[in-house]
Amino acid sequence: MRLLSCDEMKRVEAHANQFGLSYQRMMENAGAACARNIRSIVEKEQGVRRNVAILCGKGNNGGDGFVIARKLLESGYRVCIILVAGYPGSGEAKYMYKLTAELNVPTVWYEADQPKALQTIRSADVIVDAVFGFSFYGTIKPELAKVFALVNDSDALVFSVDMPSGAYCDSGLCDVNCIRADYTIAVSALKPAHILHPASDCCGDIIIANIGIPEESYAAVGSAMYTYHANEIADRFPKRKFDAHKGDFGHLLCICGSRTMPGAAYMAVKAALRSGAGLVTAAFPQSMYQTMSVKLTEALLLPLKETPAGTLSRGCIPALLRDLNRYDAIVIGCGLSVNDDTAAVLQAVLENADVPVIVDADGINLLSKNIDLLQNAAAPVVLTPHPKEMSRLCRCAVADIQADRTGAARRFAQEQGVYVVLKGSNTVIASPDDPRVYVNVTGNNGLSKGGSGDVLAGMLGAFTAQKLALPDALCVGVYLHGHCADELSQKTSKTGMLPTDVIEALPGVYADFED
């Protein structure tokens, strides 16, 4: 599903206008579609009366509000318009306001009669926020903040038109005084703020209203971001024939772990096994053998030469390279440790592997010390940094990464020729050869524990080994990792959720996505 930025949405509308769907008609269609959705929801609510306050700004979002007022009035609702920013400014909004005036729709000018406007809001059963829409920037002025605070404290059902007023369309940030809606009616298409935190937290339930813009207009403009929902993930989930065998589902190599971090290797391998890989080989320092042989009964084990500190030694490289062509995907880095020997191991794998290599955790920390290692990679490379690791790769502050997560991931992917899975709230996936980025909608703060990234790395490796197209493998893995945590959070504490809980819950979650 596409996500349209403010500029992209404007260009889609301009294209539609150029080819026959006027701006005025789009506004009429938008208001009518919003009114239909508001009626449908309100009429399902028990005990909700029909006093409606519609807060209108001076732009086109306010114009949509005027159409909503007219349509709800025609349906028997008691409607009052509150002009919170003065007389409408755009031609289309002025025309829609004129139509409401001809119908004698009660209207209050906030600047001229604040007490009446505030009392109208207090007594409303339904409040419609049609103040800013997707073009908001800057900060909310104190007088308007007082209005928004009253809305947010109200017991009324609150509907925002396109997006809550005070939310920044493209970044997902929002003013501290942003409207907090019960429902947001996205006009035409989803925008980034509908799924990016913290703005998405202000949206409530989201409804998409079709206003008649032809598909050709969307195709002409394209979109820089997209997301998937459950049915789209199910379409991409690995398919299994009734007569399949283990060789049909790929062989994954996990080069992970060290004496002080054996759990990272265990979690990556176990998650890969739970995610459908036909075979998984765990490669680790030889002193971990007793632990791994007990914990990983389904994996193949490849104990390797190690340093005195219990990390992989460069002396293990010949053994690793000897059978490197046996595998369909490789995961490297979880609990690996950072030193000259592990750097040599990573370099050897990148230069000799002819299958996708997923680099996580300490593998990324090693790359941040020598990013040129990526230039000699023989096969596709996937990096899975969290924001701090991404800041090391980009040599910038974490705050800079977080301020533009999609842009940071896209730029790095294209500059370095790698796939980037930038973890965190709304994990972002960027490709080296596709300007679009995937923005994930699943997951919660129960995943905020050491080991969650190891689980994800194993899942990504398993889906890649099963020969999904690499972008699909990454999107499926990221979505299902978060989705599993969401399912768990309905049954148990987020505080007490462990990465191993996620691993054990994967089979039950996957059952909903299989044929």
Model description:
- With 515 residues, the protein is α/β, with parallel strands linked by helices.
- The protein folds into two domains: 2-223, Rossmann fold (3-Layer(aba) Sandwich); 230-510, 3-Layer(aba) Sandwich (UDP-N-acetylmuramoyl-L-alanine:D-glutamate ligase), CATH 3.40.1190.20.
- Helices cover 42% and strands 16% of the residues.
- It has 19 helices and 18 strands.
- It has helices spanning 6-18, 23-42, 60-74, 91-102, 114-122, 142-153, 215-221, 230-236, 262-274, 289-295, 317-322, 340-352, 362-369, 387-394, 398-403, 405-416, 452-465, 470-489, 499-510, and strands spanning 2-3, 51-56, 78-83, 107-109, 126-130, 157-161, 183-187, 205-209, 225-226, 251-255, 279-285, 300-304, 329-332, 357-359, 381-383, 419-422, 428-431, 434-439.
- An eleven-stranded mixed beta sheet has the order 1-9-18-17-16-15-14-13-10-11-12, with helices on both faces. Strands 4-3-2-5-6-7-8 form a seven-stranded parallel beta sheet, sandwiched between helices.
- Helix 12 links the parallel strand 13 and strand 14.
- Helix 2 crosses helix 4 (91-102), helix 17 packs across helix 18 and helix 18 (470-489) packs across helix 19 (499-510).
- It is elongated, with a radius of gyration of 27 Å.
Describe this protein with a few key phrases.
single chain, 515 residues, alpha/beta, Rossmann fold, UDP-N-acetylmuramoyl-L-alanine:D-glutamate ligase, 2 domains, eleven-stranded mixed β-sheet, 16% strand
